[in-house]
Amino acid sequence: MKTKLKAVLTLLLVLAVHLVYAQSKSITGTVTDADGVPLPGVNIVVQGTTTGTQTDFDGNFAINVAEGQVLVFTYLGFRTESRTIGSSNTLNVRMQVDAESLSEVVVVGYGTQSKRLVTDNISSLSSADIADVPTPNVFNSVAAKAAGVQITQQNGKVEGGLNFRIRGQASISAGTDPLFVLDGIPLTNDNESNNGSPSNPLLTLSPSEIESIDILKDASAAAIYGSRGANGVVIITTKKGKEGRSSFSLNFSTGTSEPANKRDWLNAAQYIELFTEAAERSPFGDLSGSFLEGRFDRYSNGTDWRNLAVDTDWQELAFQDGSIRDADFSMSGGNSKTTYFFSTAYNDTQGIVRGNELDRVSGRININHNFSDKIRMGMNMSYSRVNIDRIANDNAFVTPLQAIAQAPISPAFLENGDPNPNTLYPNFLLEDKYAYYNTIVKRFLGRINFEYDFTDWLTFTSAFSHDLFTQTEDQFRGRLTPFQSTNGEAFASNVDTENYVFTNLLRFNKTFNEDHDVELVVGSELNKSKRRATSVEGNQFPSDDFQTVNSAAEIVSGTGSFTQFSFLSYFARATYSYKNKYLLKASIRRDGSSRFGSENRFGYFPAFSAGWIISEEDFLSESDVLSYLKIRGSWGKVGNAEIGNFPSLNLFQGVSYNQRPGLQPTQAGNPLLGWEASTQTDIGFEYGLFDDVITGEFAYYVKDTDDLLFAQPLPGSSGNPNQNGITRNIGRLQATGFEISISTKNFNTENFTWNTNFNFSKNDVEVKELPDSSDVIFSRNILREGEQINSFYLPEYAGVDPDNGDALYNLNDGSGGTTTNVNEAERIVAGRPLPEWIGGLTNTIRYKDFDFSFTFQGEWGASIYNSGGRFQSANADFFDNQTADQLRRWQNPGDITDVPEARLFGGNGTAHSTRYLEDGDFIRLRNLTLGYTLPQSIMDKLGMTNVRFYVSGLNLLTFTDFEGYDPESRSDAGGIGQVFYSAPAARTYSIGVNLNF
């Protein structure tokens, strides 16, 4: 009986094994990343079993599995993928980058570090965060994605200067931009524009070549850069080749642009009505007769203004339909010895303001080679050329946006098609037709680095870097351009800046007794920079066909200069962790700079930080709610050296007196001049909840900046003609604020994922000390102890007297009274030019082969002063066209309105005051992208590894009460927190395709 039972059981077992074997089959396929690059070493496991395999060097795999079973694919830095086996014997998987996993390694000064073990405040962005945004300025795509970081382009011009603020403004007179470091090279970031408005020297960067952007925000992170870290540090890392099969990528996009906002201006009928009324009520008597009609006859240039023969929309002429085209190609690959990355990119952008265009060509090659297990070398090289057709600055009559001041009864063109020269103000169309201003920027960046491993824990690195920045500007203004008193004039300039950096590092990295991890970096760095600039101007040309200075009959001016500076630095940093939960870091840098006085040429910049990963403790390690918790704190000192060259020296220059050479003093020296220093304390915590479904960070900081580099005026009796006075270390600022970041994985299934990232921050920068506690008043701003930096300081507008239409101003003398004379009104601190609150919200959604993402940006608390308001919204004080809100002017006793009575030449309410100060709060849909990736089966037939189509938009919606063009734009001709005929941002729509093979 037992023998029969044993035989039966054996037979059943054989049948079961045979049945399982009959149902299983061999599945083959390839695993790639989102760009189609094969991934070697991907772990593949049959769910619920120990059966598994890995992909080979080319990303291929084969495994026996039954239908209905699930294969699980895991790979470091990528999201886990699951696939249920069907009837097909082929399975190709495309794995998506896990942004959180990638951010586990962040780039710090002179190295990298695990995000988990970082004790500093660093915001990290990957290439995915800046992809597919239609803009030539790479940092426009970064806005709203990092807590405590405010990024705005100055205005809607394609080359508009960049405002990049990390935790507010840390200086008054010195530079306020962060230090930009590209692959270890401190970038030249000086504005070299000669047309009165700044240009953005970082336009030479192409988004397609960038792998990551790490923003060092606190002093502990930035102190390793010492004297140049006071405004934070932005570390840009370019893409590198990966070991594996060669891959190729092609990306194309094209789109159109329009102004993000337009304003309502009076048409011809409204213009005539308003100014007729204003002339009748002029304080100089009724001017509505022959005087007014003579003016209308002149502005209409002989056309019938009475019957509205001309109704010119000057705003439409100032703007144009813009466009943007992008194309880039890259290839990468390598083996265990050598990896390479090559890319080239092209951008062609036509701006939204007439006559404003840009095109950029760039190329990059990054190569790394292992000569042996101990010796490695790498080379990073790039070249870019940016060609910009520019327009005049905001304060020039010939800039297109000032055309909105023209009378709508004026024809823009004559009957023969030429621009009309007989307008209220110079017709910008004459400048547009008979003049040009061209800027070409060329940049070469090169870095060669050598690494030698003495042991597996001691490495020596030496690197030499070169940044060559060249800019040429050429301007020609023909004989028919406005204000031209000669037969044409031309201007040409050339600037060459070379920056050399020689860096040597010794890195010690070792673990003792499995629990003690120690890393020590010591190094030295020599930075030399040389700048040579020349310019020449000539006039009197034989005709407008000759447009270079060479054809000028008279050379009227020429300049030439050469300047240089150097930094010599020594630094060290030590990090220590015990059991990967108790964390310490200390660093120090000694900087010497030629910019400072002989008594204070060297400065020391120390920093300390500590962290505790509490979630690793036994009492929290088994928590089902709290998956990660780290508290950290830091203190550090950083400096600011952005004050130009030789401010500590007594300077002289050659002059001509009665055609004889001479010398005159140009600058009073100060041998005691030293660093502007910022000390910063930062405390915060990072957390993860529910297995990191929710993660976040909170930080609070206090940053004191003292020994401010301040230009103190000199008395006339000093005999020094320098208007900027003498540069001294005086004054103190204090910035305080907090930052909140939250990331959530709302859904995470095979076919549907939805992630949200939110950041919000508050910042205040208060003036703590000034020389002799005295106010410093300039234009419409003030520096006053106890107030926010550069606060607005203006007479307070009190509205309109309903009895007679007079504009009123508060006396602010304690009486509570008002006056019609603005000179009797005391100024008040009326607002701040920098926002108190900034925030961003990004959502990323994927459903099968569709992806969708959008970012909202918000700013609150800033005020904006419209310096052009006293011309644009002046209740017909002069003949400038007016904003449509002036139609609600006071007309009869008892009228309740905020627009005074229209009085030609009356100056009724047109003085600088809070009448033209507005809140700049806004929420903007910064960018939006919708994409579709072809199914793998179709791509296999096409021989492609990835094909993705997408549509994208920039600055699509803006929610604001600001009545001007744009709450982000500011004047490019000076004035803090002010707009003056400033162009709005561009709203851009584009379509594109990503091809990988």
From TrEMBL:
<keyword id="KW-0812">Transmembrane</keyword>
<comment type="similarity">
    <text>Belongs to the TonB-dependent receptor family.</text>
</comment>
<dbReference type="InterPro" id="IPR023997">
    <property type="entry name" value="TonB-dep_OMP_SusC/RagA_CS"/>
</dbReference>
<keyword id="KW-0813">Transport</keyword>
<dbReference type="InterPro" id="IPR023996">
    <property type="entry name" value="TonB-dep_OMP_SusC/RagA"/>
</dbReference>
<dbReference type="InterPro" id="IPR037066">
    <property type="entry name" value="Plug_dom_sf"/>
</dbReference>
<feature type="signal peptide">
    <location>
        <begin position="1"/>
        <end position="22"/>
    </location>
</feature>
<protein>
    <submittedName>
        <fullName>TonB-dependent receptor</fullName>
    </submittedName>
</protein>
<dbReference type="Pfam" id="PF07715">
    <property type="entry name" value="Plug"/>
</dbReference>
<dbReference type="InterPro" id="IPR012910">
    <property type="entry name" value="Plug_dom"/>
</dbReference>
<dbReference type="InterPro" id="IPR036942">
    <property type="entry name" value="Beta-barrel_TonB_sf"/>
</dbReference>
<keyword id="KW-0675">Receptor</keyword>
<dbReference type="Pfam" id="PF13715">
    <property type="entry name" value="CarbopepD_reg_2"/>
</dbReference>
<dbReference type="InterPro" id="IPR039426">
    <property type="entry name" value="TonB-dep_rcpt-like"/>
</dbReference>
<feature type="domain" description="TonB-dependent receptor plug">
    <location>
        <begin position="116"/>
        <end position="233"/>
    </location>
</feature>
<keyword id="KW-0472">Membrane</keyword>
<keyword id="KW-0998">Cell outer membrane</keyword>
<keyword id="KW-0732">Signal</keyword>
<dbReference type="GO" id="GO:0009279">
    <property type="term" value="C:cell outer membrane"/>
</dbReference>
<dbReference type="InterPro" id="IPR008969">
    <property type="entry name" value="CarboxyPept-like_regulatory"/>
</dbReference>
<keyword id="KW-1134">Transmembrane beta strand</keyword>
